[in-house]
Amino acid sequence: MVMGILNVTPDSFSDGGCFYEAEQAIARGEQLVAEGAEFIDIGGESTRPGAVPVGEAEELRRVIPVVRALAAKTRAVISVDTRKAGVARAALDAGASVINDIEANRTDPELWKAVAATGAGYVLMHMQGSPQTMQANPCYDDVVQEVGSFFEERLRRLEDHGVHREQVLLDPGIGFGKTLDHNLALLRGLKVLSTVGRPMLLGVSRKSFIGRLFDAEPDQRGGASLACALWAAESGVTVFRVHDVAMTVQALRMREILNNQTNTR
């Protein structure tokens, strides 16, 4: 399944400002669905390294009209990328059904309570530090083992706060508190992480580690992003969070056709 990225922000690393106004964002969301996205992930606060936090009132202003419109206009699952319990509650009330939480390393359970109360889906992502600090000096003894242990510990904590395992997708957090080598190790170790027993979501689209490998700007990273998606599909990942929906859908469907070993017209 493909999750289309819809950043309603002025400063996201790849498309900041492109869909900042609600009308533009709604049109873009409809386009992503037409291209084959089954999820739309709407974010009103950039989480790129060093991004400046956004106040709750501003995030609500950016996100809620878009959630409400796309929930009414499309059949896509609406996900909201937020760290704020107030935004999560408002988004779920407006028609979202998934909360994508980059800050699952949180200690405050208020956002989890909102997810538990509604039975919403929850994306549990690993991040070392915060967007302001995560790339300062990320360190691991064994990044795959440590991310896997984090997933297990968080799943237990979520259950303690009323969020059932069946509600949870796991995201290893490529680029969030990881070096280039950490990111590559996680991609190579996806089969190990899949043994945690919950479906996995992967977000590698246009990320900076690809830029470092190939000296490529964000809009020139599509080929490597697709390669990572196909690699991840072989490793058991089932949801792909991407900017380039049509290309990703086509690549994944072609993989399915080839694996099916039957003629398809």
Short description:
With 265 residues, the protein is an alpha/beta fold. Helix content is 44%, strand content 13%.
Describe the fold and architecture:
There is one protein chain. The protein is an alpha/beta fold and 265 residues long. It has a single domain (2-260), classed as TIM Barrel. Helix content is 44%, strand content 13%. It is built from 10 helices and 8 strands. It has an 8-stranded parallel beta sheet with strand order 6-5-4-3-2-1-8-7. Strand 4 (98-101), helix 4 (110-118) and strand 5 (121-125) form a beta-alpha-beta unit. Helix 1 packs across helix 2 and helix 3 (85-94) packs parallel to helix 4. The chain is globular, with a radius of gyration of 17 Å. The model has no long low-confidence stretch (mean pLDDT 93).
Give short descriptive properties of this protein.
alpha/beta; 8 strands; 265 residues; eight-stranded parallel sheet; globular; TIM Barrel
Helix count equals 10
For the largest beta sheet, what order do the strands appear in spatially? 6-5-4-3-2-1-8-7
- Secondary-structure element series: EHEHEHEHEHEHHEHHEH
What is the distance, rounded to the nearest whole angstrom, between the alpha carbons of the first and last residues?
22 Å
Main beta-sheet strand count, sense and barrel state = 8 strands, parallel
Q: Indicate how many domains the architecture comprises.
A: 1
Radius of gyration: 17 Å
**CATH topology (level 3) name:** TIM Barrel
Strand content: 5-15%
Give the SSE layout.
Layout: E1 2-7, H1 22-34, E2 39-43, H2 56-73, E3 77-81, H3 85-94, E4 98-101, H4 110-118, E5 121-125, H5 143-160, E6 168-171, H6 180-188, H7 190-193, E7 201-202, H8 208-214, H9 222-234, E8 239-242, H10 245-260
Parallel strand pairs: 1-2, 1-8, 2-3, 3-4, 4-5, 5-6, 7-8
Helix pairs in contact: 1-2, 2-3, 3-4, 9-10
